[in-house]
Write a structure and sequence with these properties.
By secondary structure, the protein is mainly β. A hairpin with a 4-residue loop joins strand 6 and strand 7.
Amino acid sequence: MLLTLIGLSLAASPQSADAAMGRWKTETRGGIVEIQRCGASICGRILTSDLLRTNPNLKDAKNADAALRNRPLRGLQILSGFTQSGGSWTGGKIYNAEDGKTYGSDVTPSGADQLKVRGCVFKPFCKTQTWTRVR
């Protein structure tokens, strides 16, 4: 009985926030994003995508700020400003290069190889993607 209770408590314990670190395949356009610690927060950069594999010199052409439209998409930081909250990262921002806009975001590990990434215009108007770990 005691072993069963210990097993259940371990299974129910939340993922470590560090589980978000690594390389992740996004749901769209074959994107690969690398997430790492940035001080007390996390940040994520675009490593590649289907479009970058065919045109490695793609620029951030749809950015709402015209002064930023010439920066390269490869290596572009798209995740920033998160606060650790238990096993999740909350209150951050995610930049979407497809529309040139930045959204509120939360990042939550879901098992060893999945990450729930939520972007919100404003709550409750949100969309969640499941990213898969790249090994």
